[in-house]
Design goal:
Number of strands of chain A: 10
Distance between the termini of chain A: 50 Å
Largest interface: A-B, 39 and 39 residues
Order of helices and strands of chain A: HHHEEEHEHEEHEHEEE
Strand order of the largest sheet of chain A: 4-5-6-9-8-7
Strand content of chain A: 35-45%
Helix content of chain A: 25-40%
Radius of gyration of chain A: 20 Å
Oligomer: homodimer
CATH class of the largest domain in chain A: Alpha Beta
CATH topology of the largest domain in chain A: Chorismate lyase
Number of domains of chain A: 2
Chain lengths: 235, 235
DNA sequence: TCTACTCTTTGGACTATACCAATATTTAGG
DNA sequence: CCTAAATATTGGTATAGTCCAAAGAGTAGA
């Protein structure tokens, strides 16, 4: 089982600091030669390291050393930007689309609305140190936020807009965490190869008055995140 | 991209009910022939389905259709058995080892104890419908539970023993969720191939009096679980 | 009927190679 | 010096086998 040795060798180089976070590994053909094996076996080893979250790849660009994951507490309202800054990371957000649409079956169900209701849909990609790590889609009950899209969604966080312009704040969050893999446009937006392991966080958010506000689906590159939280039991 | 067609064909068969939960897929060689391709490509497709959580494999035994994941709320004290029963699933637990050991560096740190302290270590494998899905290791502060190992750990849940014999209950839980992959003994115990995607849940549990009781590391087959919880924000 | 041994099938791992399209790099041109 | 076109490199996908050890099935013996 030769790929174990390859794995270990690469892990050692990472831990010894020969390879540092976000650094590109040599080309597959070069690595395969260095380890005296074929690309197939080499890629087997790399895929395993990818599953462990030690390396990641960018589609057709190569393999890179994974940086430390960001710690994420779904029970905090802290938005991505503030969460990142609190951890001395460099966040950036790219707005892909913000528009009013008719609710899909899936979105309508999540928002507890009849099919084809008017909702807002906001798609964003979020970066850490210029690496795209998160693809988020928000579905928002339109009737709660008239003219939401006239606010500058590309510069302000949604939670800030909710609070400042509509007096609405998150009070209760239902979340679900699953593992899956990145496909299609989402994979592309994250510069990932289809099939890259992912962590999926789905949240449904309720306001102070118990009203359902919005829901979001987050696709994280799985090595970029660790969920970290505390639960108090009321017993 | 032929493996996409293979994926879709298999997904379709699952969704049409031709293949049902826990059913074994045909042998790789048969499938490869059926799709007119090589085993390498076929395995590529299967690995992708594995990453998506639609199929799983048992080491050297073959590929199977993933059943519905179990929903797991880390903020509930419900132990595995009750959680499973509440969801009409059939749980079983196998005790691998329960012994008093000297704390490893890692365990000592988690338990906030000096190195080489006396602790209990309990290793268990948990099954759903006779499929091994979870490998748990508990590290327990020995001084809080004299003679714990004389109780029947193989028949009773740890939380029950804590409560009934020592009057200790969980009050606060710190948890961390990561994705990784199964390796070595853990993979073996779960009948998994090394490298199988996994969800890792680490918990540190505190009692009513705020005292650190124990911690546990849970390795889940990633397709067997979805984390499902609610957070109330105190704002 | 149950156990122990044998044979066959199957998954895991690996070699060697090939083609294509998207990158990255170099070169030529304004 | 900057831009655009030509070229080289590289990752993604696929073919066609091979070898091995574990698992499963079948068989013979107690």
């Amino acid at each position: 089982m030769q790929y174990l040795k390859i794995k270990d060798a690469i892990v050692e180089q990472i831990e010894d600091g020969m390879l540092t976070a976000r650094q590109k590994l040599p080309a597959e053909r070069k690595l395969a030669e260095a380890f005296d094996t074929t690309r197939v076996t080499l890629r087997e080893a790399l895929s395993m390291l990818e599953a462990e979250g030690r390396v990641y790849r960018e589609d057709r660009r190569g393999w890179f050393v994974s940086p430390e994951p960001m710690s994420y507490d779904p029970t905090q309202t802290l938005n991505f930007t503030n969460m990142a800054l609190a951890q001395q990371r460099q966040p950036r957000t790219e707005l892909l689309a913000a528009k009013q649409v008719l609710a899909s079956k899936h979105a309508a169900k999540k928002l507890e609305l009849p099919p084809f209701s008017d909702i807002y849909r906001v798609d964003r990609v979020r970066y850490l140190e210029e690496r795209p790590v998160l693809y988020v889609t928000n579905f928002i009950r339109a009737e709660l936020f008239p003219d939401l899209l006239k606010r500058d969604c590309s510069r302000n966080s949604l939670t800030d807009i909710y609070r400042e312009h509509y007096g609405v704040e998150y009070q209760r969050i239902r979340y679900r965490i699953t593992t899956s893999s990145l496909q299609g446009e989402i994979a592309q937006a994250l510069r990932a190869t289809a099939g890259t392991p992912a962590m999926v966080v789905e949240r449904i958010n309720y306001s102070q008055t118990g009203e359902l506000i919005d829901c979001d689906i987050e696709y994280w590159r799985h090595d970029a995140i660790t969920i970290d939280s505390i639960a108090e039991l009321s017993a």
